[in-house]
């Protein structure tokens, strides 16, 4: 059993995305369904029953297929798709399924999946696709730190903006007194 440490830094994840030549949307984020096509990944939704109730989405490496819980919100689906694309791009050496849950990260069909590092990387990847760092900082300044306006710009919930902001502040990408 091998538990790996995190493999990718933020700049390496950004580089992976830049090198993917993915299609951007009008907001400057990325068109996730176009990326699925580019990467030849199928998309489907599943009805959550029993043990799958808390699973938002999963990615089958073997089938190159993303399965998304049909009962989560559209916004949650979007982030879950970004997360699974992250697994596909960053963790292509995995086998079987990886998944994404509401509260805890669990892994199906494998014991030795280096889950925490990979889940963090997939989350960073997803946020980078949907609210790229450079664009987020640009809008943060343009809208004078107004969370509501930034949320409207990206068509996302305000808590997502706050999460993004705290992540970037923790990394000193944005300082608390930035204008
Ligand atoms: Zn995951």
Provide structural commentary:
With 179 residues, the protein is α+β, with helices and mostly antiparallel strands. It has a domain at 10-131: Arc Repressor Mutant, subunit A (Orthogonal Bundle), CATH 1.10.10.2910. The chain is built from seven helices and four strands. Strands 1-3-2-4 form a four-stranded mixed β-sheet, covered by helices on one side. Helix 1 (10-19) crosses helix 4 (115-130), helix 3 crosses helix 4 and helix 6 (147-154) crosses helix 7. Zinc ion binds at residues 83, 87, 98, 100, 119, 122.
A few lines on this structure:
The protein is α+β, with helices and mostly antiparallel strands. The protein is 45% helix and 12% strand.
Question: What low-confidence regions span 5 or more consecutive residues with pLDDT below 50?
Answer: 101-112
Strand elements, count: 4
How widely separated are the two ends? 48 Å
Query: Mean of the pLDDT scores?
Result: 84
Tell me the structural class.
alpha+beta
Spatial shape = globular
CATH class wording of the domain at 10-131:
Mainly Alpha
SSE arrangement, N to C: HHEEEHEHHHH
Work out the helicity level. Answer: 40-55%
CATH architect. name of the domain at 10-131: Orthogonal Bundle
Ions and ligands: zinc ion
* Spatial sequence of strands, sheet with the most strands: 1-3-2-4
Mind telling me the C-alpha Rg?
A: 16 Å
Strand content: 5-15%
Compute the number of helices.
7
At CATH level 3, the topology of the domain at 10-131 is: Arc Repressor Mutant, subunit A
Largest sheet: 4 strands, mixed
């Amino acid at each position: 059993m091998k538990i790996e440490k995190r493999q990718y830094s933020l700049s390496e994840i950004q580089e992976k995305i830049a090198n993917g030549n993915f299609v951007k949307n009008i907001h400057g984020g990325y068109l996730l369904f176009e990326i699925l096509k580019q990467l030849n990944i199928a998309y489907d939704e599943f009805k959550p029953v029993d043990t799958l109730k808390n699973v938002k989405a999963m990615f089958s490496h073997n089938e190159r297929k993303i399965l998304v819980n049909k009962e989560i919100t559209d916004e949650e689906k979007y982030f879950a798709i970004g997360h699974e694309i992250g697994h596909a791009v960053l963790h292509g050496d995995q086998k079987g399924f990886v998944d994404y849950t509401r509260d805890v990260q669990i892994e199906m069909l494998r014991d030795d999946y280096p889950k925490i590092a990979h889940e963090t990387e997939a989350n960073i990847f997803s946020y980078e696709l949907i609210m790229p760092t450079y664009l987020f900082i640009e809008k943060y300044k343009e809208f004078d730190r107004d969370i509501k306006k930034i949320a409207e710009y990206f068509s996302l919930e305000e808590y997502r903006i706050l999460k993004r902001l705290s992540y970037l502040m923790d990394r000193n990408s944005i300082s608390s007194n930035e204008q």
